[in-house]
Design goal:
single chain, 143 residues, mainly alpha, 0% strand, globular
C-alpha cells in the first residue's frame, strides 16, 4: 500500500510547511524542520537498532525509569501548551511511521527506506513552501 502511505506522508509535510510559512518568517524554523525530517527518517530506519538498544539499557535502572517519568511529564506540559504546533508534528510522525511500515512490508532495506522517506519529506516541505511563495495570497488560502 505504498501508493497510500507515501502520498499521505507528502501531504503531511506539505501541510506542516504551510503552517511553518504562515507562522514563522525565520530561516531557523525551516532549518529545524529539515533537521527534524532527516533525524526522524534516520531514527525510523538506520538508527532503529541502536535506539532500541539504548532504551533497553537505559530502562534497566531506577534512574532510567525516573528520568522517563520526568521527561514524560515535561513533554505532556509542552504538548498542552503548544497543541497547535504539536498536532502538525503528530500527524507527520504518524504518517512517517505508516510509510516506514509499508516500506518494510515491501521488503526494502533500511538505507533504501531512509532515502525514500527523506526524499518524500524534503519534497513535501518544498512543495508547501513553493505553493505559499508563488501563489497569490487569496488563492493559496483556498488550498
Amino acid at each position: 500500500m505504498l501508493w497510500v502511505s507515501l502520498p499521505l506522508l507528502l501531504a503531511a509535510y506539505t501541510s506542516f510547511s504551510w503552517f511553518l510559512y504562515q507562522n514563522t518568517e525565520n530561516w531557523v524554523a525551516w532549518a529545524l524542520a529539515m533537521v527534524f525530517a532527516i533525524v526522524q527518517a534516520l531514527l525510523l530506519t538506520a538508527w532503529s537498532r541502536g535506539l532500541r538498544r539504548f532504551f533497553r539499557n537505559w530502562l534497566q535502572s531506577s534512574l532510567g525509569y525516573f528520568s522517563l517519568v520526568v521527561l514524560g511529564a515535561m513533554s505532556i506540559a509542552v504538548v498542552l501548551v503548544w497543541y497547535h504546533i504539536f498536532e502538525y508534528i503528530l500527524v507527520v510522525v504518524a504518517a512517517e511511521i505508516l510509510a516506514r511500515l509499508d516500506l518494510q512490508q515491501a521488503k526494502l532495506g533500511r538505507w533504501q527506506s531512509l532515502g525514500i522517506l527523506t526524499a518524500i519529506s524534503v519534497l513535501g516541505l518544498s512543495i508547501g513552501w513553493t505553493a505559499e511563495t508563488t501563489l497569490p495570497t487569496p488563492a493559496n488560502r483556498l488550498l
